[in-house]
Amino acid sequence: MRFRMTTLRLRLVIGFMLVSVPAMLASAYVAAWLLSSAFEDNVEQWLGETSRFFRLEVEEASQEAQRVAAVIGQRIESNADIDVRSSSTFDAESALLNSVGYDVIAVYDDQRTIRYTSQPFQPITLLPTDEKQGIFKMTANGQRRIMAGAVQTISVKGQTLHVLVGSWLDEAYLGSIKVVTSLNVRLFADFGPRLEPVLETHPDSVSPVPQEIRRQLASGQEAVFDPSADGGTYRAVYIGFQGIDGELAAVAFVGLRSEAGLFEQLGRESLFLGIFLFGSLLSVAVGIVMSDILVRPLRALTRGVRAIAAGDYRQRVSETGGRELVQLAAGFNSMAEQLGALRDLETELRRRDRLSVLGQAAMVIAHEVRNPLGIIKTSTEVVRNRAKLAGSEDKMLGYVIDEVRRIETLVRDFLEFAHPKPPMTSELRMRSIIDRVAAIAGPELARHKISVAVTDESGDATVRGDPDQLHQACLNLVLNAIDAMPNGGTIHADVTAQGDTVSLTIRDEGAGVPAEMRDEIFNPFFTTKTKGTGLGLAKVQTVAEAHGGQATCASEPGRGAAFSITLPRWRSKEAP
């Protein structure tokens, strides 16, 4: 579909863009500058927090080793039969601690003679003879390594011993950090002239720790930030760890790759362009949404006007939008309601005009037809009774008499419909009407193998009505239900009361009433029966209206039809 510049929606979108684009240019530039600067400032802070987290992990490992060593020491001291010279004494403890991640469990005396160890090692620095925790430098399996551990002093049979528990700081210790691909953590051990790498989360070409940074950490500085570590490959923070001898034992490198930053990949100009384009697209989207919000009520009003012009006076529009649009929608709905009421009134007036014309025609028919019919009937009966006729001729005269009687009945029905008698009302229950009809129509119902199921949920509700007229109306509905079920079935009669009305509903199990016929079935002379007059349901409607009520029809294809007579509920003047 091609848009035209004259459409209200497109003009709203363009106007919104003209207002928003200049402001978006300025805000995009300021946002790009602020974001880039904020990123530079936050990288150092984030790396500092990460390095502190790494430091806490190592310190907590030493503290946990101190608690474990204390537990083992207490168990050894409490065992009076322990033999510290037998390795089997500590094998069970060693196996348990190895299973939870502790690599070294050792026991030694004041002369630093090792009485037991879970694996051979040689200390690079002297083992402490008092309780300490921190970084231990050792040689194990021909490699120089560092360990986070602790020493607990105990007394066994008057002899002072020291329990050493620790975990190697190697690749297995911090393997989970490898998940962050842009973050690299290295650990260097101070074994002499230079710092040697002992672990790295992402192995690559490891650059040595600059001597100046090593000097600063050795002098007691907690952390050092290097914005161009490894020749500019990383932004990094260096932190130092003291050994059990109080000297610098290890240095940790926590680095973030420079190319991992979004702003380094984009650049400030690209960032500005991206923010501007994103803001512009967002402005267009907001403009479209806002224009749709403004135009939607007008479209709804347009559709409503077209529907009313086509004759659908039930059309309503939602009263949403600004105050003016709400008032316009309310005015439209009120107009549609009044037009619908006028159409219903016009329809009712036309129906009454037709009934009036029908009444006049019925009077003429009654005057012009009934007298000749009487003469024909009388003459035929005289001839039939006095003349000696053959059997076939007598039978033909019988047909003439029957047809004359049928015409008289039809004329009488016309007169009763055109000029109905005023109802002689009395207080009665709707249940009594259906019970009377079911009793009178019992033989006919039995002949068609049809039963009547009555449900009364009206309580003590009554109406003011003419028993004979209501009986005739209900009988017409029951007869129609019988015709709708040629193979038998059940007629359901329900009496209900809701608020100020009482309803009697007759529901059959037939084929139902097609939707296109429901607006016509209560009109006089409308019928689908070959021998029907089309006055049965019209009489039902006339009786209901004469009692201040109405007759309605509800039907689903293949599930029968339900006809209801709804009348005002009678309340005595003494009732509250």
Automatic annotation (TrEMBL):
Keywords recorded for this protein, A-Z: ATP-binding, Kinase, Membrane, Nucleotide-binding, Phosphoprotein, Transferase, Transmembrane, Transmembrane helix, Two-component regulatory system
Location relative to the cell: Membrane
GO cellular component terms, A-Z: membrane
EC number of this enzyme: 2.7.13.3
Annotated transmembrane regions: 12-35
Domain HAMP: 292-344
Gene Ontology molecular-function annotations: ATP binding; phosphorelay sensor kinase activity
InterPro entries: HAMP_dom, HATPase_C_sf, HATPase_dom, His_kinase_dom, HisK_dim/P_dom, HisK_dim/P_sf, Sig_transdc_His_kin-like_C
Domain Histidine kinase: from-to ranges: 364-571
Reactions the enzyme catalyzes: ATP + protein L-histidine = ADP + protein N-phospho-L-histidine
UniProt protein name: histidine kinase
Organism whose genome encodes this protein: Bosea spartocytisi
